[in-house]
Amino acid sequence: MTVNKSNNTIQAAWVALGSLFAFGFSIVSSIILSRYFDKTDYGTYKQVIYVYHTLLIVFTLGLPKTYSYFLPRTNDCYVKSLVKKITTVFYILGALFSFSLFFFSPQLAKILNNPDLELALKVFSPVPFILLPTMGIEGIFATYNKNKYMALYNVVSKSFILICICCSVIVLEGNYLTAIVGFTIASLISLLFANYLKHRCLRDKGSAPTLVSFKEIIKFSIPLLRASIWGLLLGNCTSYFISRYFGTKVFAEFSNGALELPFVGMIVNACSTVLLPFFSQKNYESVNAKDEILIVWKNAFEKTIKLTYPLVMFFCFYSYDVMEFLYGAQYHISGLYFRIMLISSFFTVIAYAPILIAIGATSFFSRVHFVGACCVIVLQYTSILLFNSSFVVTAIYVVCNGVMIVSMLLYITKYFNTHISTIIPFKTVGLITVISFVLSWVTKLFSNNIPVLNNSLQVIMVSFALYFFIYLIASNIFRIDYSYVMKLFSFNKK
Fold first, then answer.
1. Is 135 left (phi over 0), alpha (psi -120 to 50) or beta?
2. Is the dihedral of CA 450, 456, 458, 463 positive or negative?
3. What pLDDT digit, counting tens, does each position of 121-180 carry?
4. Are 254 and 41 a contacting pair, CB within 8 Å?
């Protein structure tokens, strides 16, 4: 086992780079489809992806995290056997998922009130069997400090998805069905490449029969499965209510706007991917696990806040400009969804999942998601009856998600027998928030009064350059330390 604390910066940088490219390719494909499809066809395509990601949570049974949990605790001679055992389960689940999509497509189309969805899901049905075996491979790469493989996998796989979709839509002048066929072909290429990278990563490991039984794997994953199911309801009921009660066109507008700022997801996912194997190993081996885990987690938490809050605040002010640039003037209203969802980023920067999993608090993790899902469903349905507003439905999700994250943060402080003020640097958070708000407001006023900035791209570029320059000056004046950013992007050892 080779989890190396001193190497965390380099590994996090590779994960972040891969996540950035993955998000970039996803955005580019959305930009292309938004312009070549009308809202009805585009909404149908987005519904297919929505159904896939919704059911994916159920059919993976919480297994993607098993790599990050068990591999740091497994002797090298058993590694290949353990990975093969988990991968076999993924193939079985993928087959069940594909059959379910094909045979239950009429019912799913009826639920989402879109007759065109039935055929689209049948065409898409081979994808789960192809892609499920690639789930969780980031845990393998993170465990053995090979996250550059994850970055390479994201770049190659997402490139092929983009190329195949572009060829089917632009070159062949196809519709959403040909785009799905292109997605399927690219998925097969992704599977082959993932298997190749897994083989390279594990080529010096042994293949002796693993001591980890299926029972242990399932025992670990079941609480995560329950949490995933509640998380499924929590994260997707917003899409369901909007799709069901507000129509395909509104769903298309919501789908484009209800996205996370890529830099936030990139940074948080990088921290989670790298820290989970480290926390799992320390909690298994070290007598001073609590002290070591808390120190590393606090450090990562504070750095994440410093890096993400200024970006989130800036894009809150420029949400409409971003949507118009990405998807065109017809999706101007998506900017309001984007702004609402950005508010949740002030909470989601907390990488709570890896520490809860590592300390064995998966049951609590599951209960919180259950209560949160119940609250969101009741409140969102009530809001439809009272206000009939898709924006209120979106805002309810953001508020409930924030409350859930705070409750999990309080649990962590209790576990480590500390106070929340020792984990959250309230002074730094307040200072960064105020500075970011003022500078964003000033740059927005500036850009609104310059007539030569006549399109959204110019507004965003000029405003961000000005904002970035002034913020650097302000951070030096108020002594907000960003020296670690240079270490991250220069790939220094420490």
1. beta
2. positive
3. 999 999 999 989 888 887 788 777 777 787 788 888 888 888 888 777 777 767 778 888
4. no
**Cα 34 from Cα 37, distance rounded (Å):** 6
Give the number of other CB atoms < 10 A from CB of residue 411: 18
152, 19 Cβ separation under 8 angstroms: no
Pick left, alpha or beta for residue 358 (phi over 0 → left; psi -120 to 50 → alpha; otherwise beta).
alpha
The rounded Cα 381 to chain-centroid distance in angstroms is 26
DSSP 167: I
Question: pTM of the predicted model, to two decimals?
Answer: 0.67
- Among positive and negative, which fits the CA dihedral 178, 179, 184, 189? positive
Rg of the Cα trace of the chain?
23
Q: How far apart are CA 58 and CA 480, in angstroms?
A: 42
Distance CA 9, CA 300 (A): 10
356: exposed, middle or buried (C-beta count within 10 Å: 0-12, 13-18, 19+)?
Answer: buried
**Own/partner pairs, 226-230, CB within 8 angstroms, 24+ separation:** 226/62, 226/366, 226/369, 226/370, 227/62, 227/362, 227/365, 227/366, 227/368, 227/369, 227/370, 228/57, 228/58, 228/60, 228/62, 229/57, 229/58, 230/366, 230/369, 230/370, 230/372, 230/373
Contact 132, 55 (CB under 8 A): no
Q: Assess contact for 87 and 133: CB atoms under 8 A.
A: yes
